[in-house]
Amino acid sequence: VNCEQVQEYISALCDGERIPGAAAEHIGTCQRCQSELSDYATIGAELRRLASLEEAVPFSKVDYRQDSAKKIGWWKKGLATMKIPKLAFAGMLIAIIALSCGLVLVRARASFAGGRFIELKYKLPIARNAYICVMSADGSQKGNLCDFVYHGKDGLLLMNTRVLANFGDHAEIGIRVKYVPGAGETEPHYSEDLFKDVPQKVLTVEPGEEQGIEVASLGTVEVESEYLNHLPPLVNRPDEPLDPNPKEFRIIAPVLVRDNQVIVNADGSSIDSGSTDATLMLYAPGQGRYLFSLVPFEGAVEGTVHLGQIAFSLEGHHYLLLTSMPITISENVWVKHEPDFKPSVRMVRPSDARDDRPMFLVRSLKTLEQQRIPH
Amino acid sequence: MDDRELWERIRRKDASAFDVLYRSYGAGLRSFLKQLVGQAAEDVAQDTFASLWQNPNGFDPKLGTIRSYVFGAARKRAAEWWRQQKFDGEPASEAVEECKAEAQSLIGDAFRKLPIEQRSVLWLREVEGHSYVELAEIFGIPEGTVRSRLFAARRALKHIWHATGQSEEGL
């Protein structure tokens, strides 16, 4: 046992505590440790002397039944006792508030009539793929309607769907559906007039539930509904991203501008996802057709693509084709103008074979160069 | 009157019982607090007693003595007072400086240079005579830590005291 090892015991000895024998033996024989003991004892005595001097001052009688002289607010106390930097605490507080607000917003969105949009997925007995409608469900009259046309080999299915009411956990949908067997070449032009004689069925849909609509001469059309909080880039393909796939050519609501003058402004969409020579055919009444192809072809000029725009010059005019989404990942397309093109002559399907209205279609170049062009 | 009985009467708002408590510990408490908060000792002592009178539910006779409870409460009040001084932006050394003027000995000067925890434990041990068990209750630390903290306080005080004395002698 050495001096350093017994130092704490010297202090304990001053306090009247018992200490280990070895330590006691060392202290008894060590001058240095005894000096230490003496110093500690003196310190104690000095402190008690100091206290005696101070206690000689009369202790004023205080009224302990009164409230504390100075209350310390919890906020001040919290700040005072804070053990992390105040800046960090402020940042944490802001983050918590921001996150809380985010949660409130998310909750508000979720509770806002169950979502801003309703997605209806139709499964037809005559088609392999499901067909999707996304409609606004926030009470506005814009975008709460979905017209759906399916051209089958054996007939034509027309559907007119509208969101009537949204109750948050369920919604009421008005559906008019008509199936025309064997429409084929004689299919009618789509218009709301087609539904004049068709009664509206009111369907109560709940997210995740599937139910059937009986359609005369067709069978059961199954409908599955879902709430969405955002409008997907492609309303008929909600799972598709905004950017086109490598082999995709997307045209959504095209506007063709020639020398600052709009010559085509069409609604709808047409997409080709597999052809290496995917081509857009855009018809403008009185102007013929414009072909925009991903591959060079005879008589075509080169145009440049930037997101949803295609710019090109042709026949002394400057053109700009605008669409509402990115068109292709290619940086260039080849454009040709055929002013004599008439849909009534070249298009097979009657609804396409009209010269008096704009029309557009994305297909392979080979298909569009055929004398009789199928839809 | 034992601790349990005294406290039970205080809980029933028996003013005479509280006077007993006040007379028993008032002077010692103020003296202790003076080592911790200087001139504010009177205020902090009053806060402590007022708090005990208004909220007499914190003491449990099974866990310790009234004396250790009262001094523990005062220590916490003193700690709050210091935090409050820092929060208000007042110079923390002001009270100590005022105390200096009143210092009666070199040991007082040296003592006030110790960290507040060391000052508290050493004062309560040497002046108030609290046992290790009571100090452990007051500070919420194990008895072994009380022993080592007392040792550290004594060694630090001795070092400061001797250094101060030598410097004074050299003048």
Spell out the key features of this protein.
heterodimer, A: alpha+beta, nine-stranded antiparallel sheet, four-stranded antiparallel sheet, 19 strands, 34% strand, elongated, B: 171 residues, mainly alpha, 77% helix, disordered C terminus
Q: What do you see in this structure?
A:
The complex is a heterodimer of chains A (375) and B (171). Chain A is of the alpha+beta class. Chain A has 7 helices and 19 strands. In chain A, strand 16 (309-314) and strand 17 (317-322) form a beta hairpin. Chain B has helices at 3-11, 15-37, 41-54, 66-88, 94-102, 106-112, 116-126, 132-139, 143-170. Chain B is globular. The model of chain B is unreliable at 89-103 and 166-171 (pLDDT under 50). Chain A binds chain B through residues 7-8, 10-12, 14-15, 17, 39-40, 43-44, 46-51, 53-55, 59-60, 62-70, 72, 76-77, 79-81, and chain B through 15, 18, 22, 26-28, 30-31, 34, 42-43, 45-47, 49-54, 80, 83-84, 86-87, 104-105, 107-108, 111, 122-123, 125-127, 132, 147-148, 150-151, 154-155, 157-158, 161.
